[in-house]
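Schema walk-through. Below, the input block comes first and the output block second. Nothing else is stored per chain. Lengths vary across the set, and this one has 187 residues.
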Amino acid sequence: MKTSQADILILPGLKGPDGDLWLTRWERKLATARIVAQEDWHAPRADDWAARIGDAVAQAKRPVILVAHGIGCHAVAHAVGKEADLRRVAGAYLVAPPDPEAGNALPAHRDFGPPARVTLPFPAVVIGAGNDPHCPPGRARAFAQAWGAQFVDAGESGAIDSAAGFGPWPEGLMRFAGFLKTLPGVQ
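--- output ---
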């Protein structure tokens, strides 16, 4: 699958889109990409975010690829758990999911709710870092396993955000292109 054959729905994490973050850059670069807006980027609620994902998928004209960062990864799993109509989703690229149950979790991550442990009904990859301050690598691997996703170790990459130096993130874009090549079309 090529990016031109899919609607790419970008799901930023806590605080929303950052003008320098790779997600925002991808939205500007990829003609079929758009950010799924949330009502409150600073106090995310699982049900609200899941509903927005379901609405955005319903409005799509082509197969959908979900690209999520941070708590947006958990929003994808919650949408599946809430039985949103995600039949048009061809795959999900989930980067740096936080651990909302960790002792050092940010209050907004804890308030989002416990992680949904559901098998995603579409191919997915979870990318996690060995030194992510919001999620130990073992937990990121556990999320990938629970979601039926492939796990990719991003090494010492922090939260894979602009604070960790991930503005353009060309390696991530190359990996994303490789992921797209593995996906079949969705009817």
